[in-house]
């Protein structure tokens, strides 16, 4: 296997290992991996990193201490920090080669080349071998990263730096270079391109989310770079990492309606009920969210299968000011396939008590209550809330009363009709309640409804009294019937 292949083995393992180790420069870290063909290990302790890989035939080891700067052609070591050290060894079928580069202090370094146990002249073989392996090494590890990043930045600004980032071998290394680049004073008009290129280059959810999350304020300094940032989150496949980045970004920066569209496009790809609800509720916690954006949140909430999390989002949206008819209609649509009577009616109750529903929305809500809420308890509670807090046209009132009269429970049906009886009622509305009450099959509860209407009936015309008498005829008990008829004498 070639030297280049070995470094690809190393870099791929660094990526896998560092998913669970946020930084390889911790005080002490040991990670190993093995397969049928190779064993790979990384050990980091007290500022020294050791990378080892073995196939049983070939061993390749790298040990680094301190800060290393490479030459502009990436083929030689230019400088080492005080006490810096680099050792590279490769053994094939027992034949060993090694390079040792060590700081002597005062900016001086010593380079040594070994074949087996024999120290050889540095030139030409040592220098040649280092020149062959170092270009791959600097692109598959963070060796010399700071100096290399500075070189590209000084030569061609942020464009040259991100171009080099795209050429690096592993996401771990790309993220490290991105961190170094974002520490610089990048001109605001270049930041959008930097964000776009970094997001495009890094495939790992972990490393991309880490770069984005750690640089939110800088990456979102301009509207253009904020757009690029939110678009970059669409590259993150992990529900967890995507939700963390979006949540933190929305908390730190006020998103425009156009940016919220991008946020919601990214969030809509989240499969987890919980993490999608986290993003949507975080967005709703912003001050000054426009009605257009609120409506889009409601539409996206339909992607949440969980009754609990979906209705949590809808309730939070309804508590915002400036709720439009369109949003209310979309809210009802979002509730259509909510299976829980409790969660569904809790949102209807919020709509009834906090929002003005026009007759069309009232009809939409009442129809859904009648067709999909199986619990008479929850259905009656919502119908009473609507009666107590909304104004009605005759048509929407009739629809609600009809649904109430068809409730299976005589008790709950009578509660709704008696609530309606306390309102200022038109002649037609009185007749609607009386007609609906005829569906109550309990003499006791039917009597309660009719008695509650008796004063209004006495002061109405003959058509209302006829409807009252027709409903009273449904009572089998002579005692209850007598009480009802006496009430309008």
TrEMBL record:
Where is the secretion signal located? 1-25
- Keywords noted in UniProt: Signal
Q: Which domain of life is it from?
A: Bacteria
Q: What is this protein called?
A: HEAT repeat-containing protein
Record organism: Chryseolinea serpens
**Upper classification of the organism:** Bacteria, Pseudomonadati, Bacteroidota, Cytophagia, Cytophagales
């Amino acid at each position: 296997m070639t030297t280049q292949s070995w470094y690809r083995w190393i870099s791929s393992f660094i990526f896998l290992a560092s998913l669970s180790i946020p930084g390889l420069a911790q005080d002490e870290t040991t990670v190993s991996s093995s397969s049928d063909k190779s064993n790979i290990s990384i050990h980091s302790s007290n500022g020294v990193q050791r990378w080892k890989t073995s196939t049983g035939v070939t061993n390749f080891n790298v040990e680094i201490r301190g800060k290393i700067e490479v030459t502009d052609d990436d083929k030689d070591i230019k400088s080492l920090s005080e006490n810096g050290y680099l050792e590279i060894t490769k053994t094939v079928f027992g034949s060993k080669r090694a390079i040792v580069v060590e700081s002597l202090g005062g900016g001086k370094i010593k380079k040594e080349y070994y074949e087996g146990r024999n120290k050889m002249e540095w030139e030409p073989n040592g220098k040649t071998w280092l020149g062959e392996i170092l270009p791959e090494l600097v692109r598959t590890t963070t060796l010399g990263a700071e100096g290399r990043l500075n070189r590209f930045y000084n030569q061609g600004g942020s464009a040259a730096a991100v171009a080099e980032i795209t050429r690096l071998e592993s996401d771990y290394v790309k993220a490290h270079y991105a961190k170094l680049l974002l520490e610089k004073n990048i001109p605001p008009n270049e930041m959008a391109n930097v964000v776009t290129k970094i997001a495009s280059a890094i495939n790992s959810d972990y490393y991309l989310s880490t770069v984005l999350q750690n640089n939110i304020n800088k990456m979102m300094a301009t509207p253009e770079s904020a757009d690029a940032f939110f678009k970059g989150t669409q590259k993150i496949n992990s529900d967890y990492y995507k939700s963390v980045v979006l949540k933190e970004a929305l908390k730190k920066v006020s998103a425009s309606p156009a940016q919220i569209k991008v946020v919601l496009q990214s969030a809509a790809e989240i499969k987890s009920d919980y993490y999608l609800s986290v993003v949507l509720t975080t967005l709703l916690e912003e001050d000054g969210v426009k009605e257009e954006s609120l409506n889009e949140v409601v539409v996206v909430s339909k992607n949440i299968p969980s009754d609990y999390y979906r209705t949590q989002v809808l309730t939070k949206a309804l508590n915002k000011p400036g709720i439009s008819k369109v949003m209310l209609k979309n809210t009802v649509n979002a509730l259509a396939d909510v299976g829980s009577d409790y969660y569904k009616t809790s949102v209807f109750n919020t709509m009834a008590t906090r929002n003005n529903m026009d007759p069309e929305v009232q009809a939409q809500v009442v129809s859904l209550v009648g067709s999909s809420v199986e619990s008479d308890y929850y259905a009656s509670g919502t119908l009473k809330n609507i009666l107590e807090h909304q104004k009605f046209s005759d048509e929407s009132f009739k629809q609600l009363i009809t649904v109430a009269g068809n409730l299976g429970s005589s008790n709950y049906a009578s509660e709704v009709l008696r609530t309606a009886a306390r309102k200022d009622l038109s002649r037609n509305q009185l007749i609607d309640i009386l007609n609906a009450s005829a569906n109550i099959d309990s003499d006791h509860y039917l009597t309660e409804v009719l008695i509650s209407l008796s004063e209004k009936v006495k002061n109405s015309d003959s058509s209302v009294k006829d409807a009252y008498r027709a409903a009273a005829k449904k009572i089998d008990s002579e005692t209850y019937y007598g009480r009802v008829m006496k009430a309008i004498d």
